[in-house]
Specification:
- The chain has 13 helices and 28 strands.
- The protein is α/β, with parallel strands linked by helices.
- It folds into three domains: 4-120 and 254-360, FAD/NAD(P)-binding domain (3-Layer(bba) Sandwich), CATH 3.50.50; 125-251, FAD/NAD(P)-binding domain (3-Layer(bba) Sandwich), CATH 3.50.50.60; 388-540, no CATH class.
- The strands form seven sheets. Strands 1, 2, 3, 4, 5, 6 and 19 form a seven-stranded mixed sheet that branches. The chain has a seven-stranded antiparallel sheet with strand order 20-23-24-27-26-25-28. Strands 8-15-9-10-11 form a five-stranded parallel sheet.
- A hairpin with a 6-residue loop joins strand 12 and strand 13 (223-228).
- The longest helix is centred in the middle third of the chain and has 19 residues, at 304-322.
- The protein is globular.
- The N and C termini lie far apart (61 Å).
- The model has no long low-confidence stretch (mean pLDDT 95).
- Keywords: Coiled coil, Iron, Iron-sulfur, Metal-binding, Oxidoreductase.
Amino acid sequence: MSKIENLELLVVGGGPAGLSAALAAANYGIKVSLAEEREFLGGQLIKQTHRFFGSEKEYAGTRGIDILRKLIDEVNKNKNIEVLLSSRVLGIYEDNVVTILNDHKMKKYYPQSIIFATGASEKFLAFENNDLPGIFGAGAVQTLMNVYGVLPATNVLMIGSGNIGLIVSYQLLQAGVKVAAIVEAAPKIGGYSVHASKLRRLGVPILTSHTIKKAIGKEKVEGAVICELDSNWNEVKDTEQLIKCDAICLSVGLTPLVDLLKQRKVKTNYVSELGGYVPLRDENMETSIKNLFVAGDVSGIEEATAAMIEGQIAGLSVAKRIGKNNKREIEKRIEDAKNELELLRSGPVGKKIRKGLFKLGLNHGKNYNENFSEEALDISHLMKTGVPSEENLKNKLPSEEKVFDKGPIAISECFQRFPCDPCVKSCPFNAISENGNINNIPYVDFEKCTGCGICVSKCPGLAMFVVHKNFSETTSVVIMPYEFLPRPHRGEIVKVLDREGKYLCDGKVIRILDGKFQDKTAAVSIEIPKEYYLQARNFKVEE
């Protein structure tokens, strides 16, 4: 056994929360040791190829893997951070001594402060034959595809329609894997509607109020039996149906990894809204044990953006306590981070988190603007099917048909309140507005809009389109976002689809913007018969 090494701050976990915590403290002179059990940093970010929502300040519009590169670059340049890879924390004891296994040696550390950013684990689901080969967690599928380049199957049934289930379904399609359907037991889709809508435009059915009964197969998954649920979550008689697939992907939630915290006897409570047992902590992320902080999913399941901000608050709180200088500046930064977090949680999608925090005794609700806690539109049909209602569409289209006569204009098909603003920030003509709050639905000022199409590539939800109704006497042009391979080429004839992925007509590709600025979200201009300008919202390239 080695001697005990003193540390100023030990951060456990090299994901978005841990990296942010380490940087926040190290930037104020705190010596940080960052322990990550894997041989690389990144946590969930390493497999997130999609663009983030949220505010510009927190990397909105940037892909998760690119956010990771920026964070790692900052960590590597910071002389106050020592990175301990392949270093598993084995225990934390009452005297705050921490044991870490590294290079087959167990070492002991005595940190002044510790920030646990250990993340979460995937939940499982009980159903018949759930031990057949071919049943994966969504995180495993993402790791196989996006980290190791391995396809898990050829035809996947997704269980769960939260953001992870929707995002992984989209990534499966990008990798060339068929998604047979997305099954959701709740009566409405759990994730953001823009994620659901882009899957529907690709023809993927989303079956809300349905559940899986059993997996079919002898030595591996060959299919699944699903059934409908009533309003009391009971099976509806004679609604069983067989779904053919060679893999079943479970995306049914995460639960915080609090084992080490329990070993240290940190007080925890079961809070279903936050994913399970979570540590009691104050608004500075400090637990019931002094100088022991938490950040990210271990403190309650939430989006990665919130995890990064929580990491900043924890790291700054340690810097304020241990450091000797800049205390007022640090206090200001902590307050700014809390305000940012409050803003991100203030919309309808943050209601569940706010309820969970309230159960922890955190009175985050006191400053929330209740005007933003409910949806502005009736999106019940959208959240049940992934397809906007006629009323939803009418709300976002010009009120007068003659507006289309001015030339190309942007059409936003974002109907749900959630924190996101890349479309607003990207518009050089200030033609898109959220009326002063990032949780508001974006609206296009058609008088200001020039139809430039920048927003088409910048929207993380692929919910921006440009429509040029009167491109010619008989044709219209719709600019659509496109993130698949192969890319179409100019002059190619493609199959144009509607919002449910159904074939509408053939279309001609007349322009493709697909450079560094578009960052892998190409803006493709498709010429179509004029009668389809309000329906055409996707296309398929014939290989």
